[in-house]
């Protein structure tokens, strides 16, 4: 039973962390720019915050309320951050600059920055709240301490695996491209731009639903 829960949690977390976003792109940039220690420190902070959010969803899967206006502010803040990172990467691509983290992360505060960015990510809570409800309904995730522990551990490992994949891929692509690292900036920038536009459209649809005739 524990292995089944862990497998589901790992798979959902890994696949959910694959689309280009603030956290995984920052990990990739830090690996290339400053090395694995800084990147892993940032990733560890982000994972701790995500597990904390999932823990809240487990404790309140039946009743949970977030001030709608506050949630909208967080959504727009993350969307704005995605646009900033996208434009930063595209600008670097136009300048033919080497690939680096689109966010200016202080070397002494990588864990804290990773934790904060993951904690304020408004997409974490609805994503994991939804999956928690689904897995409960399918009787995959029981209401037990052991089940919750396996679930949280699987989520942490899934996100970590996605971060490692981003970091390893970025490092390999940079070595492959050599003096043409600006191509990776184009790829990351366009991916982030598409993600930001998609999230903005989704947010506007949620905030201003069409009225049926």
* Cα-based radius of gyration, to the nearest Å: 18 Å
Whole-number count of domains? 1
Beta fraction: under 5%
Q: How would you sum up the global shape? A: globular
- Give the beta-strand count: 0
The helix-strand sequence is HHHHHHHH
- Helix fraction, binned, reads over 70%
Uncertain runs are 64-68
Which terms would index this structure?
213 residues, globular, 76% helix, mainly alpha, 8 helices
Short description:
With 213 residues, this protein is mainly alpha-helical. It has helices at residues 2-16, 22-34, 36-59, 68-94, 110-119, 124-137, 145-177, 182-207. The longest helix is centred in the last third of the chain and has 33 residues, at 145-177.
Question: What does the model show?
Answer:
- With 213 residues, the protein is an all-alpha fold.
- It has one domain (2-207).
- It has helices at 2-16, 22-34, 36-59, 68-94, 110-119, 124-137, 145-177, 182-207.
- Helix 2 (22-34) packs antiparallel against helix 3, helix 3 packs parallel to helix 5 and helix 4 runs antiparallel to helix 8 (182-207).
- It starts with a helix and ends in a 6-residue tail after the last helix.
- The relative contact order is 0.22.
- Residues 64-68 have low confidence and may be disordered.
